[in-house]
Amino acid sequence: MTEASEASRSAADARSVATAGRGADESVGDGRDADPAAERVDRWFARRPALALAALLPVGAATPLFPVELGVATFALGTLAVGMAHGAVDHLVPLRAAPGVSLRRSIAVVSVGYAVLGGAVVAAFFAAPVAAFVGFIALTWLHWGQGDVATLAIAGVDHLPTSAERWLALIVRGGLPMGVPLLAHPEEYRLVAEWIVGLFLVDGGAAATAVDPLFAPAVRAGVGVGMAAATLASVGLGYRRVRSGRDAGGWRRDAGELAVLWAWFLLAAPVFAIGVYFALWHALRHVGRLVLVDPAAASAASAGDAVGALARFGRDAAPLTLGGFLVVGAVGVSVPAGVAAPGDLLAVSLVAIAAMTLPHVVVVAWLDRREGVWRPGAGA
């Protein structure tokens, strides 16, 4: 049986993995009668990695004492291990998540999107590197929050029943890795910004002046106050839902993960913190979500076969994971300043990741819509 015919026959079953036990008018996020595959995926790819990150807090707290090259190496290792692969199955998402989409159409639409949107991002860095850097931070803020909200929905938490509450959770979840390091470790954060912007300036020394407004005390204070207020509001609104009868377990999990993430990004050096978070938290959660929309991998997960589910994902992701590293190489040979140091390699990798993030966000947003993650009243 071909991939296309398999997906056409069982697309509805694949989508129902994450929404099992709910009526036809309900979407992801209710949490009743959880499907075994969804429960196992949540445990394997979300809950256990979160506990692992909590256990790593003492290690993270020590990293500001070490050179930034430790963070660069950690980021590279995490990207090699799982970070690059987590978006490398995007070309199969429409095939598996929507009935009637052929393999050819799925690949063609996603490929064109990656080429057009990714090319636009790289062009933006050449034209206006500071603005492009800010855009990349904002886009990553959106995407990492988007991923965590979808994970909570798949887990069946019901203290975020409206789109407004989920958007607030997105702001908090995405802002922790992007905003909190700016408060605790602005020097290293600024160093990375200078590395990225400097790639596109003939006079590399001009990068420090170019990024200076981004690190003004008023900007840092605004981010800090905004993140603290948003966190308290999200946790407080969730607690009100619990007081009115919502399940307390999901709220406790949400609050506990927020506490771990606040501690992680306050204590750990930014490059190290992002490298570990990208691989151990964000990428793994998305891999788990993709397992649920693949009928064969979801079946393996339902049976408790984690190796089988991961092997299926790895097979699908391998070709375009290599393609992602080719994009890194293409950016590296095209930047005016060249690549001469570990910091330059990190900067080139981040620009390439930025180029792949925009189309990836579009695919994930489409999947969110298919699964009803942002539908007002979801799970109410």
UniProtKB/TrEMBL annotation:
Give the family per the record: Belongs to the Brp/Blh beta-carotene diooxygenase family.
Q: Per its record, what are the GO molecular function terms?
A: beta-carotene 15,15'-dioxygenase activity; carotenoid dioxygenase activity; iron ion binding
The organism named in the record is: Halorubrum ezzemoulense DSM 17463
Membrane topology reported for the UniProt record: Multi-pass membrane protein
Principal localisation:
membrane
Query: Which EC numbers does the record give?
Result: 1.13.11.63
Any transmembrane segments, and where? Answer: 50-66, 72-93, 114-142, 217-239, 260-284, 296-313, 320-339, 345-367
Record's function text: Catalyzes the cleavage of beta-carotene at its central double bond (15,15') to yield two molecules of all-trans-retinal.
> Which cofactors, if any, are listed as required?
Fe(2+)
Catalytic activity reads: all-trans-beta-carotene + O2 = 2 all-trans-retinal
Pfam families membership: BCD (PF15461)
| Classification via HAMAP family | Beta_carotene_diox (MF_02093)
The protein's name in its UniProt record: Probable beta-carotene 15,15'-dioxygenase
Low complexity bias located where?
1-20
Where does the record place the region Disordered?
1-35
Cell compartments where the protein resides: Cell membrane
Stretches with biased composition (Basic and acidic residues)? 23-35
Residues recorded as binding Fe cation, renumbered to this chain, are 86, 143, 282, 286
Record key words, sorted: Cell membrane, Dioxygenase, Iron, Membrane, Metal-binding, Oxidoreductase, Transmembrane, Transmembrane helix
